[in-house]
Amino acid sequence: MAITDKIYVKNHRQLASQMETNFPKGAFSGATLDLLFQGENLAKLDDTTRDRVLDFAEDFLDCDCEGAPHCGHPERKFIAYLLELRETGLGPQAMVDVMSDEYMVYAYPGDIRSFLDDSIRQLEAIETLADVDGQPDATDAARQARKRLR
Predict the structure, then answer these.
(1) CA–CA separation, 147 vs 141, rounded Å?
(2) What angle (nearest 5°) sits at the alpha carbon of residue 53, between those of residues 47 and 58?
(3) Beta bridge pairs of residue 8
(4) Of 2, 15, 42, 111, which is the most exposed, with the fewest CB atoms less than 10 Å away?
(5) What is the sign of the dihedral through the CA atoms of 33, 46, 109 and 90?
């Protein structure tokens, strides 16, 4: 299961009530993305909540693909965001706190920890394969990326 399947809308019930509509709790579920991408009900939200939801939409849903927001770009952008948070030295709980403050989404710290561990393992595999294939630049890039995540 991808980490983006484990990212949830904070204050989900309150938002659903304000918007007078039901939508899934998962931030990257299809119906939630449709709701945010279309934005018709956002006017019903209080100013602070609307600003955070719009920030989320601008930072992750801004895509020119014909299939947007179901093209996979929002998920990839969010994964890059999580990796950037880790590279700044934040631990899983701090990462959850930041994403919650910035975008009103959350995850369980254990899920973030598992995601980071999986990312490091994948980079180790890339590093090994690149070394075996005789690609020193790719080996070094994977090694440096892995070190930034530790």
Answers:
(1) 10
(2) 120
(3) 26, 106
(4) 2
(5) positive
- The pair of structure tokens assigned to 88 is 């700044």
Distances from the Cα of 1 to the Cα of 10, 18, 31, 35, 144, angstroms: 20, 30, 18, 23, 26
Name the pTM for this structure: 0.90
User: In degrees, to the nearest 5, what angle opens at C-alpha 124 toward C-alphas 120 and 125?
Assistant: 120
Reading the block at residue 82, the tokens are 């999580």
Q: Where are the alpha helices (DSSP H) in the chain?
A: 12-19, 30-38, 47-56, 73-87, 92-103, 109-132, 136-149
- Look up residue 6 and give its DSSP letter: G
**Packed helices 47-56 and 12-19: angle between N→C axes, nearest 10 degrees:** 100
pLDDT of residue 37: 64
